[in-house]
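# step 3/5: fold
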Amino acid sequence: MNEVNEKCGIFGIFGEGMDVSRLSFFGLFSLQHRGQESSGIAVGDGQSIRSHKGLGLVTQVYTEEAIQSLKGFCAIGHNRYSTSEGTGMTHAQPVVVRDGALALAHNGNLPSVKLLEEFLSARNVSIEGKNDSELMAEAIGYFMKVGSSLPEAVRQAFPFFTGAFSLVVMTKEALVAVRDGFGVRPLVMGTLNGGVVFASETCAFHSMGAEFLREVAPGEMVTVTKEGVRAQQLVPGRQRFDIFEFVYFARPDSTFMGRSVYEVRRNFGMQLAKEYKPEADIVVPVPETAVPMAAGYAHASGIPLELAFIKDRYIHRTFIEPDQHSRDLGVKLKLVPVPEILRGKRVILIDDSIVRGTTSRRIVKSLFEAGATEVHFLVSSPPILFPDFYGIDTPAQKDLIASTKSVEEVGKFLGATSLYYLSLRGLIESTRLPRSVFNTSCFTGDYPIDIHERMREVRVMEVMHERQGTLFTS
């Protein structure tokens, strides 16, 4: 229900005797929440690479005929999130270059592509109209053109990738998975019937019965060929995993760093109950991400949980429409409050984050219109003060409501009885992992990977969330 959005999900598979295109379809279906604008699959059969891409959801893009046409033993897939810039088929992935000899799928973002553009331009490789993923593919393709193998080409191009990236890259006969040195975006590895699979999340393995092996380490490259699997550390790794995967992006049945996403979200709710517990009658989550948080809050507080919103499952997530009017209309259609549950009640409303605040404001208003007497808005993350440059589609800083308004002003804008943000300390402690392994740049402005010229877009400000919590009451 928020306006902070993941840009994509990736999948890769290598295994002889397997229907890799069909398995890629199921993997991408499980990763649909990470991107809903376009989807694509590329398959290698030892002789060539064939690909199929289209606009829409996974179930809309692929037909039985399309799946049957993609025969081989090696495949990569990609779901892309819709943004207001670069929409349509132009930038749908996997990116295919070198006349079909190389395909790449990317989750993440390079805040600066100057090094790539300078490198490619000096070698007369066209960069016109190409985004970061396409420039990465061109750089790898260049090194292959001058004689390098796929893993060697990835190793040579790696220093030019100045940002966050989890990649799956393939030729007609080999597959490579690689992660940036800080491991900002997720990438996991599993096994299926003797083959090897990669995905953005472990939930992609459940649908096909694959066994989770481990996460691809920060700075690591894993190469899979018919000769076997080889892992190579390209740079020393220092884990700075994006904590928003736990807050919002990931499916609750996924795991990262040995932690269940569902359990961590439940912990967020329990921690919220320790930090702020107003007098109330019911706890109501904003579907669906906040349900585990609300369950944890209800358990810890003793206040009963009520699913007071009916969600229309046939309307897609509201952030797939880039303009605000469409987003607001989608919220109105998608979430319908139940007056019989809400009438006369003091409500604790729980959501994972507040971004622009417009969606949250409409939700609060709908609860009052349905008969709630009080709406206490509790957020299971600190205020989002800074834009992201690592593969999350956040608004510009001026459009982040917590960056331009005080907590009191945000609460008044929402029309809430009270507003409380989970403290950063509470957020980190709920993961049962050290703060040092996380990227918290949206909350702190601490960017672990240099964002270069993009730093001009960031306004330095006092970071209020270092306190125990942030509270407004009307």
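# step 4/5: annotate
The chain has a mean pLDDT of 92.
# step 5/5: archive (pending)
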